[in-house]
Write a structure and sequence with these properties.
single chain; RutC-like_sf; 60s Ribosomal Protein L30, Chain: A; alpha+beta; Endoribo_LPSP/chorism_mut-like
């Protein structure tokens, strides 16, 4: 077990299987020392635990937990390309999309679910740039979608 996966276990988490693509794309690709994930939905055992808009059918607290699940799924995608999460030299950027009710403006707080998980797992190497974007709808009516870019050590 890698040190990163041991840290996940310490947090009470296990790395899931890579979520299969919903269309014509790969869950993650490597270009040079970087791995880019596709947008990861908060799938758990092949299903979305909740659907709808944040600020309407989904509470911000639920959405924050879902963003954490997205980040965990992104780590599984990174591992599928890198082979070992201990190769991650740093998390470079996180981009998150939040399906938002018309008056919901708390997207950054929702995305903290992903950012806080990456910080807890990687420490200083998990500090990253980030974008949090509110959108009208996401695939499968998911409340949150997260993509992650990491740099691998040689």
């Amino acid at each position: 077990m890698s040190a990163v996966e041991a840290k996940l276990a310490e947090l009470g988490l296990t790395l899931p299987e890579v979520v299969p693509p919903l269309a014509a794309y790969q869950p993650a690709v490597q270009s040079g020392p970087y791995v880019y994930t596709a947008g990861q939905l908060p799938m758990v055992e092949g299903k979305l635990p909740v659907t709808g808009k944040v600020g309407a059918e989904v509470t911000p607290e639920e959405a924050k937990d879902l963003a954490r699940t997205c980040a965990l799924n992104a780590l599984a995608a990174v591992k599928s390309v890198a082979g070992d999460l201990d190769r991650v030299a740093r998390v470079v950027k996180v981009v998150g999309f939040v399906a938002s009710a018309a008056d919901f403006t708390g997207q950054p707080a929702v995305l903290n679910g992903a950012s806080e998980l990456l910080g807890a797992v990687f420490g200083d190497k998990g500090v990253h740039a980030r974008s949090a974007v509110g959108v009208a709808v996401l695939p499968l009516d998911a409340p949150v979608e997260v993509e992650v870019q990491v740099e691998l050590a040689p």
